[in-house]
What does this fold into?
Amino acid sequence: TQLLEQSPQFLSIQEGENLTVYCNSSSVFSSLQWYRQEPGEGPVLLVTVVTGGEVKKLKRLTFQFGDARKDSSLHITAAQPGDTGLYLCGGATNKLIFGTGTLLAVQP
Amino acid sequence: DTGVSQDPRHKITKRGQNVTFRCDPISEHNRLYWYRQTLGQGPEFLTYFQNEAQLEKSRLLSDRFSAERPKGSFSTLEIQRTEQGDSAMYLCASSFQRGEAFFGQGTRLTVV
It folds into this structure.
């Protein structure tokens, strides 16, 4: 059974702090995708990582794919209240499955 | 193309009734996924199609759930004899092969 585990499950921080969210699995994925979801809406794709060891940056967000393509991390620098939401990692093999999610709250 | 669309956005139904949701994927996408999501949790895989073929269905899915994609374009998800435990957000996503998946806004089901 393929499983994606995210940590931490909940994170409440002050504006301006840095944070890292982790996505881990025992399975190898052809790609990993990160999404952000706001209440009552569908997840919105942030980035896809494909190559082991790959690092992608999206403004204050840095995404890394593990060398063995089993894990990934999302680092946010100087978090802002607009970063609040549920962060999801999704792994693709024959189908797309998701992690448990990290609920981030950034307090002003 | 306006992306993945789902209809309805919200559905309130009485326990025991049948409900059907529709998903229109991005037109050039051949894969279509259905997920169920409860508050604060990640989407739980239900089933997926490649073109009109249903390639996998979650073992957690009871026989009350059925999905179709008759012409390889839009898809429907039907829940028969709804139960209160079926209350959740139902999400549809589409992709081209194993590429990036894009989600609709979801259908929020409330069973009373």
Summary: The radius of gyration of chain B is 13 Å. Residues 5 and 15 of chain B are 26 Å apart (CA to CA). Chain B has no helices and eleven strands.
